[in-house]
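Acetyltransferase: structure, please.
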Amino acid sequence: MVDIREVPESDIDRALELAYLVFHDRPEKEVRDKHHALLASCDRIGAYDGAALVGFMAAHDFRLSVPGADLPCPGLTFVCVAPTHRRRGVLTALMTQMLRRTAAAGSPIAALWASEAAIYGRFGYGSATTGATIEIDSTRPLALRIEPDRRPLRLLDPEEALAVIGPFHEAARAGRAGRPTRSAERWREEWLAEQDEEDEELSPPRIIVLGGAGEPIAGYVLYRTKPEDDAAAVRVPGRVRVDELEADTPAVAAALWECVASLDLTGKVSAWGRPLDDPLLHFAADRDQVRVTAQFPALWVRLVDVRAALTARSWAAPVEVVLEVHDVRLPANAGRFRLKAGPAGATYENDHADSATADLALDVRELAACYLGGTRIEELALAGLVQEHTPGAAAALDAALRTPVLPHTSDEF
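Here you go.
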């Protein structure tokens, strides 16, 4: 029997050694120090077998943009169990305790990035956003169907970048669901770090903004470059890795993509974790030049308090449905509920009607996957994961859940 309890700051190094063991990692001291500082600011729980720490889980203190709102949302990270204690209920005990703590703190949702997609569905997490990797062949000029914004582009010093792009990013975050807050420390340690943690050959971050000095910017691109490798058996041209691109308009986005695709001594632009509805995929004139090379589940969301989560978000169209929700981890979420929602708000109450069946029956995992607007109830019904007892109920709920743009984040944690 293991004991689940808070992990004191004095045990953070032990927690890190466990994580490095589980994830087969051996980071340098600089990265270890960074991880230590990160965990010092997190909520931490561990599984102790006697004096030994055999399981660990931490949670960032985030807020997450959801349709029409911004909600407290712990972001789970460093989830690990010692190889000697797998399949003994350690992860279940840790997750149960973290869900209880999240509910007690009044956070209606939680989120994580899954190292293995098969793990977290059984704890009620649903894959709520999807990312795409986009590659541009930049050996020739980027062909576009729209005219780029021709206002001036300027390169920012990384030291001044946060003051300029930070507020722009926060405004953009509010306009697209699924995006966690970024502290100044997170900006400095990850997005604007001098050296990339995963690839030491990449340059320091470069930041280009559109807009004249002294004027509000209309967009920015944050990228790193890698020199060409002419010593390889097959020459590898220089590469541009776009870490983030935000723009007020498609024309601004076109100008920024055109800029990074025209950098000298490079032949490829790659951008990991872009939204599936990225305007680039439509205004690129040659889709052989601009290709989606990968697509993957990104942010996983858990509805800890279904009523609070559903009544906090905005709704695109009126809907009234009775939901039969299953939640084996948090029984307070389970039961029959009548959802009445629309542009004026929502109510979600226990349903005591005499009808034999609800309109829709689903697990809390499926409800979480659809919560941000990135997954359609109808698709899950076609997959046999949602039972539609009233024809048209899935389509009606989809119309109400719809958002102008797909939920998306590239903030991996």
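Notes: DSSP finds eleven helices and 19 strands in the chain.
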